[in-house]
Amino acid sequence: MAVIVAQPVRRKAKLWDKIYPYFSITVPFLVIALFTIYPVLYAVRISFYRYLLTKPKSHPFIGLDNFKEVITSYYFRTSLVNTALFTTAVVIGVTIFGLIVAMLLNSKVRTANALKILILLPWAIPSVVGGLMWKWILNSDFGILSGILYGLGIIHQYIPFLANPILAKLSMVIATIWKEGPLAAIFFLAGLQLIPSELYEAARIDGGGGWRIFRYVTLPLLQPIMLIVVVYETITAVLVFDLIYVLTGGGPGDSTSMISWFAYAEIFKNLNLGHGVALAIIIALITLVLIMVYLRVIKSEEVGS
Amino acid sequence: MNEKIKRTLGLGIVNLLIILLIVFIAGPFLWIAVASMQGENELLKHPPNLIPQNPTSDNYRYVFTGEIPQSYEVKGQLRSRISQEARLIAPALKNSFVVAITVLVINLILGIPAAYTFARINFRGKKLGYNFMLGSRLMPAMAVAIPYYIIIQTLKLLDSYLSLILIYSALTLPFTIWFLTLYVTNIPREMEDAARVDGCTPFQTLYNIVIPMMAPGLVAASAFAFMTSYNEFLFARLLTQSIKTQTGPVIIASIAGNPDASYSLISVCVTLGLIPPLILAITMRKWLTEGLSASITFR
Q1: For the residues of chain B, what is the DSSP string, one character each?
Q2: What is the pLDDT along chain B (299 residues), one digit of tens a residue?
Q3: Which residue segments constitute the domains of chain B, with CATH numbers given?
Q4: Residues of A in contact with B17 (CB under 8 A)
Q5: 54-113 in B: which are within 8 Å (CB) of A?
Q6: Taking a contact as any Cβ pair under 8 Å apart, which residues of chain A between 217 and 246 contact chain B?
Q7: A126 vs B230: CB contact, 8 Å cut-off?
């Protein structure tokens, strides 16, 4: 009896089982698609037209001229060099910072617990706000960093950190390490906790000292995570924008003007949409190439091991 | 003996390093909070006081009630040094909150079923969908900023909560779905199979069996979605036009860009804006750390 009654219910359930996967992903995919596929196509289209916001009526097709004009401009070279320098410094700085913090957090020292509570804070806040906090700390009239150095008698007049091209670049890097380092630290800590303690003991019995154990046991085992950190931080650094907006505004001169800042300035200051979007597409291609290079490295590592 | 000295010395260096790091990490937060409790003149002193001599709540009172602090009436700073904009921070933070909470709820409602589908069910087009979702996160914000403006303008949604909610949902859903998919994949499957044998639909299995088991992942995913929305700047700057919708970061950046703004009032705005993410980061620390660790070590 029961079997006969169950029959139609089961058929209905079967159809539902088939539709359900699509049903469950349709709405999120529509939202994501609306804000990816259409905007990207639109951006690509704009990049082939002369698109000045001061001349809203005429948008002649100009082929690749936007790309040519942008690439041959003085600012492109400057911002590319600035971005490359900044990215290299940030990736190295964040990786070393993250490694040191992770090793300290992983140690059994009691003060490490306090650091554990505080470490996520810079990561959790808006980067605009983080940048602003550093701007006040580094200010040349009332910045607390100069204040402390002055109070200690190390300097005799306040240092204009953000008005000097080299110090401004350095300030950008420090503020980024402060903001991004915590995430790298948490990632490395996760990796350290996966390393079985027997490995360390074995290395110690074999007579390895602290540095040798780090070099030949810890570091190789952390390599997969290090690659992820490097990829992630490269993308973050290449795309840096919020921090420039509040901390330096690209200055002094154009010493901290990175490529995404250049794109922003073309769109919102020079009102040349075509140029700005062409730049943004170049940025997208650069990140894509970097990611592919990294993926290739990861793959060859996996094959090698 | 020698060994002991070496160990004590090593411990001393480790502790010193940790204390330096604590100062580096926490110092900026402490200073902005201290600055918000001082008068303008005290902040401009060379060198300023690290511990406020006359801590005052006047700056906060001005931001909330509009009552002008006494310290501003000396030296004719009254006109130049007060920024009316600082008073916008309370409504701006309310806007941030409404938007971020809505995005969080949307992420849970849409994200959980989608993640469960990707983790457990095989269907045609699964791989394509998954890769599209992950790839969407590689798009640089600057490239799509203007197209976003045009979409939002066409939908007649400029200066509305809905515009930010839609965009932040599109930005956070790929991460939420990916993260929760990893989480579900790492939950043993036996209980669900038992439920399916007993005649539960995928939907029922999900809500009665899986969701309770993935609670820690859900907490982490919610916190990530909230923070991303609360912290976003570029699109908020572009798509909001009045205090009806302007979010915390937009107002804070705008006050800070005003050369006439008072430093202690800016400090008040920054301190107030920091409170929600800091509370979240401290109370949810365990889940956030676990979630971040899971996102990098799960396979």
Answers
A1: -HHHHHHHHHHHHHHHHHHHHHHHHHHHHHHHHHHHTS-HHHHHSSSPPSS-SS--SHHHHHHHH-PPPGGGSGGGHHHHH--GGGGGHHHHHHHHHHHHHHHHHHHHHHHHHHHHHHHH---TTHHHHHHHHHHGGGS-HHHHHHHHHHHHHHTT-TTSHHHHHHHHHHHHHHHHHHHHHHHHHTS-SHHHHHHHHTT--HHHHIIIIIHHHTHHHHHHHHHHHHHHHHH--HHHHHH--STTT--HHHHHHHHHT-TT--HHHHHHHHHHHHHHHHHHHHHTHHHHHHHHHHHHH--
A2: 577 888 888 888 889 999 999 999 999 999 999 888 887 777 777 777 778 777 778 888 887 877 777 666 655 544 455 677 888 899 999 999 999 999 999 999 999 999 999 988 888 888 898 888 888 877 878 888 888 998 999 999 999 999 999 999 999 999 999 999 988 888 888 888 888 888 888 778 888 888 888 888 899 999 999 999 999 999 999 999 899 999 999 999 988 887 777 888 888 999 999 999 999 999 988 888 888 888 877 65
A3: 2-85 (no CATH), 89-253+275-297 (1.10.3720.10)
A4: 100, 104
A5: 110-111, 113
A6: 225, 228, 235, 239, 241-242, 245-246
A7: yes
